[in-house]
Design a protein that fits this description.
With 86 residues, the protein is α+β, with helices and mostly antiparallel strands. It contains four helices and three strands; from the N terminus they run E-H-H-E-E-H-H. The two termini are 14 Å apart.
Length: 86
């Protein structure tokens, strides 16, 4: 994954991520603790969200039938990419 391949557009809040993924709030946070979803980005003192491209990539991986191990690797890549975007 390169910097050029990622364009930051939106940060999705929990309700939008739930709608996009089909996960309940508790399942979303369970998947984070299992390493199957990226951790949220803090956007305020009591507000978090996820970059829309991460949600899209994780949904695409699940739709493509990727294994949990594949998705864990993707999560690690996405979280590393966050640190190198700027």
């Amino acid at each position: 994954m390169t910097k050029k391949s990622i364009s930051l557009r939106m940060i999705l809040r929990v309700p939008a991520v739930q709608a996009a993924s089909g996960y309940s709030r508790s399942t979303l946070y369970s998947r984070i603790s299992q390493g199957l979803w990226t951790s949220p980005v803090h956007i305020g003192p009591r507000a978090v969200g996820w970059p829309d491209f991460e949600v899209s990539m994780l949904n695409s991986a699940r739709i493509a039938g990727k294994t949990d191990e594949d998705i864990k690797c993707l999560v690690k890549e996405l979280e590393i990419a966050r640190k190198t975007l700027l």
